[in-house]
């Protein structure tokens, strides 16, 4: 009987030691920086934030990952990729909204961009608004840092909604006669150093997350500028 108890205790101690070693190994892996974005480390970061439907895909020539969070559809696009390195140095986060005919000016978009450093808002042809954030892995990035970058970007749609709801009409009425243009959407999606013919990329990307509607989120249209 005593030998059975001893064996049982030995088994439990071995199992606990194995589990502890496994946890330590996982912790060490999480603490190791990476130099390139890959489907695996990107999806792992999203999964760590509770995303359950992250899916790798391809839109035209672009390698993408699509997912939903708080019922909104997001797209991630790999940029500056190097097959020899097995990954990419750039990652574009983007989410598109349909305005359903409502009008917003570049001045309104720029007012958001001046207030928030963590995402850029821009107008896209076809009655769409785009929010984007570009990440670079040059010099190395920690997995937890990538996760926090995703978390910050996921908070930006609510900030845009709040900004347009509270300030849109006043900003439109006070818009200068020649406002500075918002960041051109095509610049957000292309790498001029490596790509050519990228003019259609933004429209291709918008198909990844085109199901979001600003109107459905209660954003009023901006008031027309007074003559």
């Amino acid at each position: 009987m005593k030998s059975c108890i001893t064996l049982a205790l030995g088994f439990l101690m071995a199992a606990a030691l194995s589990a502890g070693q496994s946890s330590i190994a996982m912790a060490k892996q999480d603490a190791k920086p990476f130099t390139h974005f890959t489907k695996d480390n990107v999806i792992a970061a999203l999964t760590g934030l509770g995303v359950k439907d992250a899916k790798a895909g391809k839109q035209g020539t672009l390698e993408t990952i699509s997912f939903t969070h708080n019922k909104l559809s997001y797209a991630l696009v790999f940029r500056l990729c190097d097959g020899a390195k097995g990954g990419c140095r750039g990652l574009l986060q983007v989410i598109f909204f349909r305005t359903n005919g409502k009008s917003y000016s570049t001045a309104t978009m720029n007012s958001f961009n001046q207030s928030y450093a963590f995402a850029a808002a821009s107008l896209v042809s076809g009655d769409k608004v785009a929010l984007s954030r570009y990440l670079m892995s040059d010099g190395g990035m920690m997995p937890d840092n990538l996760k926090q970058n995703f978390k910050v970007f996921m908070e930006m749609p609510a900030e845009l909604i709040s900004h347009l709801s509270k300030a849109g009409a006043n900003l439109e009425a006070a818009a200068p006669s020649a406002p500075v243009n918002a960041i051109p959407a095509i610049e957000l999606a292309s790498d001029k150093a490596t790509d050519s013919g990228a003019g259609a990329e933004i429209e291709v990307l918008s198909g990844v997350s085109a199901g979001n509607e600003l109107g459905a989120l209660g954003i009023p249209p901006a008031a027309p500028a007074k003559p």
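The longest helix spans residues 143-173. The beta strands are 55-59, 62-69, 72-82, 87-98, 120-124, 128-136.
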